[in-house]
């Protein structure tokens, strides 16, 4: 005589079911973890308004950060003084550690080594650029009513002049930045600089030009850095002329762009030019 088919315990409502049969069911039925109700709701419900990605730039996620501890900051700050003579090298880091009372082995606190010194230089110069504007850069070099393009030129040159003492070492820094593992942070730092320059210049774009302008400034600055390393003219006049021409050309191109396809094409060509400026084989 065949046994009647038994249902799982959680669905069985037969009061005659014996405890022996219950034990056999518990052994024979494989365990299935309960479904997470939160996952079930998130699968069917649309995302809330608070998590939607808006178009305006202020709602974009933050850039990747590279923060440092107090000990790392102390070593890196001291190491910057040795960059003009030793470059962005481990020797500069070691001397910085010695100057601040750390052992030579303390440079191992910096997981990216020499590249951390490059990143710290870039981030600290951006801070100095913002401080220069707060201290009256535009009241001493330009009039407050100057256009965004003129202020952009001034800010780019102000930032480039901060590299004057280490321009003979900057080719090595560019080589470090162009390594595949270092490119993401290098690009994020360059993007942060371009965004700072345009914000300090008074740019208030909220359409597609928000992206094209930042890509343009990034490409102009990256190219100007390469030009500056070869500039032997007094007061970087050759670099100044290069920046003026590139900013004027970029504005002329931007004024003629209309439509999404043209904007995307311009952004793509600018990104390729930016990569080639850093020595990437694109």
Automatic annotation (TrEMBL):
One of its GO terms (biological process) is ubiquinone biosynthetic process. It is found in: Mitochondrion. Residues 40-56 have a biased composition (Basic residues). Residues 27-56 are annotated as: Disordered. GO terms for cellular component: mitochondrial inner membrane. GO terms for molecular function: lipid binding. Coiled coil: none annotated. It holds the Pfam family COQ9_N. The keyword Acyltransferase does not apply. Residues 184-253 form the COQ9 C-terminal domain. Pathway: Cofactor biosynthesis; ubiquinone biosynthesis. Keywords: Lipid-binding, Mitochondrion, Transit peptide, Ubiquinone biosynthesis. Residues 72-97 form the Ubiquinone biosynthesis protein COQ9 HTH domain. PANTHER family: UBIQUINONE BIOSYNTHESIS PROTEIN COQ9, MITOCHONDRIAL (PTHR21427). Membrane-associated protein that warps the membrane surface to access and bind aromatic isoprenes with high specificity, including ubiquinone (CoQ) isoprene intermediates and presents them directly to Coq7, therefore facilitating the Coq7-mediated hydroxylase step. Participates in the biosynthesis of coenzyme Q, also named ubiquinone, an essential lipid-soluble electron transporter for aerobic cellular respiration. Belongs to the COQ9 family. This is Ubiquinone biosynthesis protein. It comes from Aspergillus ochraceoroseus.
């Amino acid at each position: 005589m065949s046994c009647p088919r038994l249902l799982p315990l959680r669905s069985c409502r037969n009061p005659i079911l014996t405890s022996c049969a219950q034990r056999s069911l518990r052994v024979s039925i494989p365990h299935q973890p309960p479904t997470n109700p939160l996952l079930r709701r998130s699968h069917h419900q649309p995302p809330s308004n608070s998590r939607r990605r808006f178009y305006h730039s202020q709602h974009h996620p933050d850039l990747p950060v590279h923060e440092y501890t107090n000990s790392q900051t102390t070593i890196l700050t001291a190491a910057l003084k040795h960059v003009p003579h030793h470059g962005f090298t481990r020797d500069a880091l070691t001397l910085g550690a010695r100057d601040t009372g750390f052992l030579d082995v303390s440079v191992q606190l910096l997981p990216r080594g020499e590249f951390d010194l490059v990143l710290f230089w870039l981030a600290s110069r951006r801070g100095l650029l913002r401080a220069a504007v707060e201290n009256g850069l535009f009241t001493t070099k330009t009039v407050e009513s100057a256009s965004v393009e003129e202020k952009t030129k001034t800010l780019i040159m102000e930032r480039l002049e901060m590299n004057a003492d280490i321009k003979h070492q900057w080719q090595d820094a560019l080589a470090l930045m162009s390594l595949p593992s270092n490119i993401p942070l290098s690009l994020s730092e360059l993007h942060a600089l371009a965004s700072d320059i345009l914000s300090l210049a008074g740019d208030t774009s909220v359409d597609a030009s928000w992206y094209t302008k930042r890509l343009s400034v990034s490409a102009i600055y990256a190219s100007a850095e390469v030009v500056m390393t070869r500039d032997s003219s007094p007061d970087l006049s050759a670099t100044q002329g290069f920046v003026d021409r590139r900013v004027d050309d970029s504005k002329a191109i931007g004024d003629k762009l209309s439509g999404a396809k043209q904007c995307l094409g311009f952004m793509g060509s600018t990104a390729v030019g930016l990569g080639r400026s850093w020595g990437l084989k694109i």
